[in-house]
Design a protein that fits this description.
The protein is of the alpha/beta class and 487 residues long. The chain has two domains: 8-77 and 336-479, Aspartate Aminotransferase, domain 1 (Alpha-Beta Complex); 82-333, Aspartate Aminotransferase, domain 2 (3-Layer(aba) Sandwich). It has helices at residues 7-12, 36-43, 45-54, 82-88, 99-112, 123-134, 148-156, 184-194, 218-230, 242-252, 261-270, 296-309, 320-333, 336-355, 373-376, 386-398, 407-410, 438-453, and strands spanning 69-70, 116-120, 140-143, 160-163, 202-205, 235-238, 274-278, 289-293, 368-372, 400-401, 403-405, 426-430, 461-465, 476-479. The longest helix has 20 residues, at 336-355. The model has no long low-confidence stretch (mean pLDDT 95). Bound molecules: ligand F0G.
C-alpha cells in the first residue's frame, strides 16, 4: 500500500481543541440575503413538516425558499469570485469562435494538460458523448464505484457497469486513506473474464463521490496505468473533483508533501487519456463542463457529436460568459490555500460529528460529510429507505437540506428490475464552495447531534412513486406509521 504521511495522527485522533481551522484566502464583498420565507422556515418546525410532506419526503422536491442551509449539493452552488464576475462582463457571445472559448481552451491545456477540448453545458453531457463514442453494446466498463450519471450513460450505451473499487471503499468505518483506489486484481479478473476487446476503457473517478468523497493515490493510478497499457485499455478520468483528490495526495502520500496541488493535478492527468468534468464543482461555476483528451480521432468524433446535442464546438451549450467564468475558475481552483481551506471546512463539520459519536463515513471526504444511516438508524431496514428517512428528518429538525445516497440513489438493476442494495446507505451533506462559514458548520452539527440523541424514535418510508432512471431526483415517499421522527 502507498506510504502515508502522518495520516493517522492528522485525521483520526485529533481532539476537538486541537482541530486547526484554515481560514480561506478571500474576504466577503457581496452576500446573498435569505428571504423572509426562508427565515420563517428556519424558525418554524410545523412549516418544515408541512413542506417535506408536500415534497413527498424527498429533499430534491423542496423549493429553495423552504430551505435554510442548503447542503443538497456542492454542484453549481459555490460562490464565484470578483474575478470570475468581472469575466462574465467580458462574455463574447459570438455563435462561432468566441474569445472565451479560446481562454477556456488555454486554461484546460495549461492546468489539466490535455491537448483537445470539447465544451459541454455540464458534466453528464460530456459523459454522454464519451460513452456513446467509446462503448459498443455488450461491453463492460470497469469503474471505481459508480456515480449516478456516469453509470446511467454507460448503461444507455449498452455496457455493463463493473465495480473494481477496493473493498474498503464500501466500508464506512475503514480509515483507509485512499478508498478511491482501484483493486487491480478485480480489474485483471474482469480482463480475463470478458477479454480486453470488450473493455472500451477504464473509468476512474477522482475523489469518489459515492464512496464519501474519497481519493485514489498516485501510486495506485500509476500502477493502473501500467496494467491498462499492457492490455491497451485507455484510462478515462471523471475529474469532477480532481483538486480535492490532489490535495489529499499532497497531505497523505509520501513524496508529495512539497508538491503543489497544481503539479499533482497535472501528474494525475498525465496518467490518463481523457477526462470528463462537471465544472460546477472544482471549477467554481454555476454551469459548465467539458470533455478533453489527447487522441485526435476521439476529439474529432466528439467535436462532431457535440454539435448534435449541445451546440457549436466553440460553445457546447454554454454562453461565452459562462466559458470565461469557468476558465478563470480553473486557475483559482488549483491554488493550494483555496483547496486546503475548502476541504478543511468540510473536515471541521465531520470532526464535530465524530467528537459527538455520530456515525459518519471516515475519513471525512473532500466535498461532503456522509452520515451512515445504517448505524444511525439500525432499526430501519434498507427496504424502508433509512437514508431517505434520515435526510427528511434532518430537514424537519433544522431546515438543513442534505441528500439520500443509498438504495434510492442506487436504483434498479436494468436486467432484473430489482433494487440494487448498496453496502453504503448514506445521507450526504455537501458543502458548497466559498458559500458558508464555521457558524453554519456548527449549526448543522448541533442539529444532527440532537437528531442522533432521539434516533430510536425514527421511522422508515415506503416509496409511492419512482421514475425508471435516476429515480432519486423525483421519487415520492410516505412515512411508515406516524410521523418521521418524534420531537
Ligand atoms: N461526475 C461526478 C463525480 C459528479 O458528482 C457529477 C455530478 C457528475 C459527474 C455529473 O455532472 O451534474 O454537471 O452533469 N454531481 C452532482 C452532485 C449532481 O450533486 O454530486 P453534472
Amino acid at each position: 500500500m502507498t506510504q502515508c504521511v502522518k495520516f493517522e495522527a492528522m485525521d483520526k485522533d485529533v481532539k476537538q481543541e486541537d482541530f486547526q481551522i484554515i481560514p480561506p484566502p478571500y474576504r466577503i464583498k457581496v452576500v446573498e440575503l435569505l428571504s423572509k420565507e426562508q427565515m420563517d422556515i428556519a424558525n418554524n418546525r410545523e412549516r418544515r413538516e408541512e413542506a417535506i410532506a408536500k415534497a413527498g419526503y424527498n429533499t430534491f422536491l423542496l423549493k429553495e425558499d423552504q430551505v435554510y442551509i442548503d447542503f443538497l449539493t456542492d454542484s453549481g452552488t459555490g460562490a464565484m469570485s470578483d474575478n470570475q464576475w468581472a469575466g462574465m462582463m467580458l462574455g463574447d457571445e459570438a455563435y462561432a469562435g468566441s474569445k472565451n472559448f479560446y481562454n477556456l481552451d488555454k486554461a484546460v491545456r495549461g492546468v489539466y494538460g490535455y491537448r483537445y477540448l470539447v465544451p459541454t453545458h455540464q458534466g453528464r453531457a460530456a459523459e454522454h458523448i464519451m460513452s456513446e463514442l467509446l462503448i459498443r453494446p455488450g461491453d463492460s466498463v470497469p469503474n471505481n464505484m459508480y456515480f449516478t450519471t456516469r453509470r446511467v450513460h454507460q448503461e444507455l450505451a449498452g455496457a455493463t457497469w463493473v465495480d473494481v473499487s477496493i473493498d474498503e471503499a464500501h466500508d464506512p468505518e475503514s480509515w483507509h486513506p485512499f478508498k478511491g483506489n482501484v483493486d487491480l486484481k478485480k480489474l485483471q479478473g474482469l480482463i480475463k473474464d470478458v477479454g480486453r476487446e470488450r473493455i472500451p476503457y477504464m473509468s476512474i473517478e477522482s475523489n469518489v463521490n459515492m464512496a464519501g468523497g474519497q481519493p485514489f493515490s498516485m501510486d495506485n493510478l500509476s500502477s493502473l496505468r501500467q496494467l491498462c497499457d499492457e492490455h491497451k485499455i485507455p484510462v478515462m478520468l471523471d475529474g469532477t473533483r480532481l483538486v480535492e483528490n490532489a490535495y489529499f495526495i499532497q497531505r497523505r502520500e509520501a513524496g508529495y508533501e512539497n508538491k503543489m496541488v497544481r503539479q499533482i493535478v497535472r501528474e494525475i492527468c498525465s496518467y490518463t487519456d481523457g477526462i470528463t468534468v462537471s465544472g460546477k464543482k472544482d471549477a467554481l461555476v454555476n454551469i459548465g463542463g467539458f470533455l478533453a483528451c489527447n487522441d485526435k480521432k476521439l476529439f474529432l468524433e466528439a467535436k462532431a457529436m457535440v454539435v448534435v446535442y449541445e451546440g457549436l464546438h466553440t460553445y457546447g451549450g454554454l454562453a461565452g460568459r459562462d466559458m470565461e467564468a469557468m476558465a478563470r475558475g480553473i486557475y483559482e481552483m488549483v491554488q493550494d490555500r483555496h483547496v486546503a481551506a475548502r476541504v478543511n471546512q468540510v473536515e471541521y463539520l465531520g470532526h464535530l460529528l465524530l467528537q459527538a459519536g455520530v456515525p459518519i463515513v471516515v475519513p471525512v471526504g473532500g466535498h461532503a460529510v456522509f452520515l451512515d444511516a445504517k448505524r444511525f438508524l439500525p432499526h430501519i431496514p434498507q427496504e424502508h429507505y433509512p437514508s431517505q428517512a434520515l435526510s427528511a428528518a434532518l430537514y424537519v429538525e433544522s431546515g438543513v437540506r442534505g441528500m439520500e445516497r443509498g438504495v434510492v440513489s442506487s436504483g434498479r438493476d436494468p436486467v432484473t428490475g430489482l433494487e440494487r442494495k448498496p453496502k453504503l446507505e448514506l445521507v450526504r451533506l455537501a458543502v458548497p464552495r466559498r458559500a458558508y462559514g464555521c457558524a453554519d458548520m456548527e449549526f448543522v452539527a448541533q442539529a444532527i447531534i440532537r437528531l442522533y440523541k432521539k434516533r430510536k424514535r425514527g421511522c422508515g418510508l415506503k416509496m409511492v412513486y419512482e421514475t425508471e432512471r435516476l429515480r432519486f431526483f423525483q421519487a415520492r415517499f410516505k412515512p411508515i406509521g406516524g410521523s418521521l421522527m418524534e420531537r
